[in-house]
Amino acid sequence: MPDGSLIPQVSGPGGFPALVLNADFRPLSYFPLSVWSWQDAVKAVVLERVSVLSEYETEVRSPSFSLRLPSVIALRDYIPAARRPAFTRFNVFLRDRFECQYCGEAKPAQELTFDHVIPRSRGGRTSWQNVVAACGPCNLRKGSRLPRECNMLPRQEPRQPTSWELQENGRAFPPNHLHESWRDYLYWDSELEQG
Ligand SMILES: [Zn+2]
Predict the structure, then answer these.
(1) Its pTM surpasses 0.90
(2) Ligand 1 center to residue 192 CA distance, Å?
């Protein structure tokens, strides 16, 4: 068993992350992409919770143990997606593809706001069916008016997405860091479509 003293020969902050796939070899999550630190990946390998599909050149060593750092791992036990995705700010933005539902502009998360289509002051609820992503200027312009009072209707009628829909939307956002060995697992079905 490796202990906490394992140190990779080449180290760097946040170096050697492992892409984590479900037992069906699809990423556990596309956005944010499911990646583990090398420490967590090595621990899971040693505990036999994952299979290693690809490795880095770099090894970790202890007196009794040496292991190449995994770059892609797959869980041995399949984790089913939650049937109903959690109602979070992030998931609302992901459902709306990070686009303001009034002007249609794509924005980084920090520039988006959470808009109640029917304002709370007019009895609107905080729910999948009444909350959309909106940019600051549109949110301000709409204020506490009803959609028909200001002629501002969301581009898509808000509703609860499925986990599959969120996962599909997430695929549109390539991660900042992409190791060569991850590509096959991230884009394999789109490659197949082209073939
Ligand atoms: Zn807008």
Answers:
(1) no
(2) 36
